[in-house]
Amino acid sequence: MKISRFTVNPFGVNSYVMWDADTLEAAIVDPGMTDEAERKALDSFIERQGLKPVHLINTHMHLDHIFGNLYVKEKYGLDIKVHPADDFLGRSLEDQTARFHLPIKATNQGLDVELHDGDRLYLGTEPIDIISVPGHSPGSVALYCPESGFVITGDALFRGSIGRTDLPMGDYPTLIAAIRDRLLTLPPDTVVLPGHGPESTIGQEKSSNPYIK
User: Fold this and answer.
1) Tens-place pLDDT, residues 33-65
2) pLDDT band per the 50, 70, 90 thresholds, residue 116
């Protein structure tokens, strides 16, 4: 599996494109694009690589991670795949945007395909395992690619930090328990690809992250 990161929008979201080198099937994860330049950068990359997008996946539905959902859905004919516990966030995107006083046009949206803990998607023959990590939002999930040795953690786990829990239906004890039980149990050399900021590894976070030691 190959993966490329695009850092977009005023929140500095890491949007990802991952793809199978043989079939060129691709997944677009957390498309947060808010302007034409960001959308063009994504489209140009997909075209240059000859990719065939087959999945649109959200790790969660906070506004900064879903601004580009409807564009990607229409452009590539994809369903929005997300945990149903976060559907209410997508359906309140306009209110989320107004609360942050952002000059960004946003349209409420809901999920098309539910993702649940233990589900498995594929790019080519390589699996993407869905791991529930609630707490930052009730439906937050991580995307674990065991054969390639990386996990996209959304806003659950960052390098040296964790996601905030003061947003609607966030819960600190739930997040800590999910990180310890669901993420830190992955192999220590697993690369952590977060929703914001630089990458890390499970081993590094297990040994030095001050929030979960």
Assistant:
1) 999 999 999 999 999 999 999 999 999 999 999
2) very high
Three-state DSSP state, 114: strand
Which residue intervals of the chain are DSSP H helices? 36-49, 69-76, 87-90, 93-99, 172-178, 202-208
Which residue's structure tokens are 């003061």?
A: 166
| CA distances (Å), origin 111, targets 3, 60, 61, 95, 142 | 24, 11, 10, 17, 17
The CA angle 74-154-129, to the nearest 5 degrees, is 80
61, 139 contact by CB (below 8 A): yes
Q: Which position has the token pair 């991952």?
A: 18
> By C-alpha distance, which of 127, 89, 128, 125 is closest to 109?
89
Within 13 Å and on the Cβ side, how many CA atoms surround 207? 7
Q: For the packed helices 69-76 and 36-49, what is the interaxial angle rounded to 10 degrees?
A: 40
Rounded CA separation 82/141 (Å): 8
Nearest to 9 by CA among 28, 42, 31, 27: 31
Q: What is the pLDDT of residue 49?
A: 98
Residue type (1 letter), 155: D
Query: Looking at this protein, which amino acid is placed at residue 151?
Result: V
- Dist. CA 184–CA 90, nearest whole Å: 28
For the segment 13-31, the average pLDDT, to the nearest whole number, is: 98
Q: Give the 3-state secondary structure of residue 47.
A: helix
In the numeric block, the tokens 């107004």 are attached to 98
The length of the chain is 213
